[in-house]
Specification:
Blueprint lengths: L1 E10 L2 E11 L4 E5 L6 H9 L4 E10 L2 E2 L5 H6 L2 E4 L6 E5 H16 L6 H14 L10 E2 L5 H15 L3 E5 L7 H15 L5 E6 L12 E6 L2 E6 L2 H9 L1 H4 L2
Parallel strand pairs: 3-10, 3-11, 6-9, 9-10
Antiparallel strand pairs: 1-2, 1-4, 4-5, 7-8, 11-12
Helix pairs in contact: 4-5, 5-6
Length: 247
């Protein structure tokens, strides 16, 4: 699904990724853990196509296609979803309006029939119920006045509606209480655990992995993967810290 080879990237002229190599097969959930400044969010932004992140070496293929030959909207239309550590607020735009236009833009890109208003509302209510979110909240402006947990639940609703092939979730557990953490974990499992889908889950802590058991755990340090293992590696990181495990 996702194959990264010898990836180097800079931000404002500073090298952040330094030869990162990683493969995430279809049907698997991979977690990336690492200390602050290791390059975790940079990796997510490079894969998503955020401006200001310059790839200087290496290659990435997504579902067999050259990722860097695709614009950000083309990556989304091909089935990539990027979840943010801090979802942004968009005053004046209702979540329902935002989600319907996002979904229909991908439908248009694929030549598929667009959702009518009634069809979309039914879909949105179903996804909101899956995440334990009051569908009335989707009538509000995007993330305006939402708590941290509400923003992450809404982002999971968005992921369910978009139904991606690959979800890249950048510290989606940041700032969540126990109930919200459980809801997000349930959403990831409900939406993305399938043979044709994959998840790259970026996190500092092991706690989300109590609810989303990964197939592989990777330690990112100084811009590259320095160690990989099974779910037990996350527990080791929790006990020993990054300095010992990544040494």
């Amino acid at each position: 699904m996702l194959k990264i080879e010898n990836l180097h990237a800079t931000v404002a002229g500073k090298a952040i990724l330094n030869g990162l190599t990683l493969t995430v097969p279809a049907g698997e959930i991979h977690a990336i853990m690492g200390p602050n400044g290791a390059g975790k969010s940079t990796l997510a932004y490079v894969l998503g196509g955020r401006p200001g992140y310059e790839v200087t070496e290496g290659s990435v293929t997504f579902d067999g296609r050259d990722l860097f030959a695709m614009e950000p909207h083309e990556r989304a239309a091909a089935g990539m979803f990027l979840g943010f550590q801090y979802p942004v607020e968009i005053p004046g735009v209702s979540y329902l309006q935002f989600l319907r236009e996002s979904l229909n833009s991908q439908k248009r890109a694929k030549g598929d029939a667009e959702f009518s208003g009634a069809e979309f509302i039914k879909l949105a209510k179903t996804q909101a119920a899956t995440l334990g979110m009051d569908a009335e909240m989707l009538k509000r402006p995007v993330n305006v006045g939402f708590s941290g947990g509400e923003k992450k639940r809404a982002e999971m609703v968005q992921m369910g509606i978009m139904d991606p092939k690959l979800a890249i979730l950048d510290e989606t557990d940041s700032g969540l209480d126990i109930d919200a953490l459980k809801a997000v974990g349930h959403g990831i499992n409900e939406i993305m655990r399938a043979p044709e889908k994959s998840v790259l889950l970026i996190t500092h802590y092991q706690r989300l992995l109590d609810y989303v058991r990964p197939d592989r755990v990777h330690v990112l340090s100084r811009g590259k993967i320095v160690r990989s293992g099974g779910p037990e590696l996350a527990m080791e990181l929790e006990r020993e810290g990054y300095a010992e495990v990544a040494a």
